[in-house]
């Protein structure tokens, strides 16, 4: 993990001038005006600490880092939080989007696992917008690490992959499919622990006291990680889409790129992959980045027929993942 730590380094707390400038730039990027009421934001910072950094800004809001210190209990509170503000830009958060954010909040709130990002709160910040208060990961996201490193070493990729599969297994045991696994949604602590984040596309595939798995019919996620059955007009098992996406994440870590842009016959690289499978060959990119046991498992995870893909528990019991030894920080979170 040493090379990864050198790549990410430690984030320096923003000084007041730069923070104020970034706040102003964000406000100006919202055509509808400033998306947060100061008194509502004050309530958030009172509970979760002063804002010290703007981590990222997007079309639907911003992610901030706050630092909470002090308190009456001992040891005193000293913790950073990620504050994700949901905003629609031109106007207050549209009703459907707001309802979706509120509906997905319990998923992150009630999950407790070392490889799942913890969500603490969902608070109003004015103008119909919301702020989710979450666990802060100072190591950034896996996508940034891949870009900075170009490609990860085998032992790095294997460790992160095993952590990812552990998180996916927990989700599936809780009857939840993530549906949007990709490096951008995999956050890293400064100790090398991977945590699955962003449950905006997640869905529950089994209702309590029911044995039946509810099939899905909606295509979700980012194009390079979407499994081929999602392009068909037939219901599918949402768990198997997570298995497919996890395999693409591993390839991205080792190769520094995705094997194709979309898993459809319109994509030349995917057409080549289909032909390789038809004649009984392993994909050339998978062969380049893997050994005997990992190559076979990745090949099965990327089966065109979703029913032939292994489940997360089967992955963890495989010889490849059984041989991967993760550090204590990765095991405990």
UniProtKB/TrEMBL annotation:
Give residues annotated as binding ATP. 84
| Catalyzed reactions | L-seryl-[protein] + ATP = O-phospho-L-seryl-[protein] + ADP + H(+); L-threonyl-[protein] + ATP = O-phospho-L-threonyl-[protein] + ADP + H(+)
- EC number(s): the record gives 2.7.11.1
One GO cellular component, as annotated: cytosol
Gene Ontology MF terms in the entry: ATP binding; protein serine/threonine kinase activity
Task: Tell me which residues make up the Protein kinase domain.
Answer: 49-321
Q: Which domain of life is it from?
A: Eukaryota
The record, for Gene3D superfamilies, names: Transferase(Phosphotransferase) domain 1 (1.10.510.10)
Print the keywords alphabetically.
ATP-binding, Kinase, Nucleotide-binding, Serine/threonine-protein kinase, Transferase
Any one Gene Ontology BP term = intracellular monoatomic cation homeostasis
Which residue ranges run through the membrane?
none
InterPro entries recorded for this chain? Kinase-like_dom_sf, Prot_kinase_dom, Protein_kinase_ATP_BS, Ser/Thr_kinase_AS
Q: Which family does it belong to?
A: Belongs to the protein kinase superfamily.
PANTHER family per record: PROTEIN KINASE DOMAIN-CONTAINING PROTEIN, SERINE/THREONINE KINASE
Q: What is the name attached to this protein's record?
A: non-specific serine/threonine protein kinase
* Originating organism: Aspergillus welwitschiae
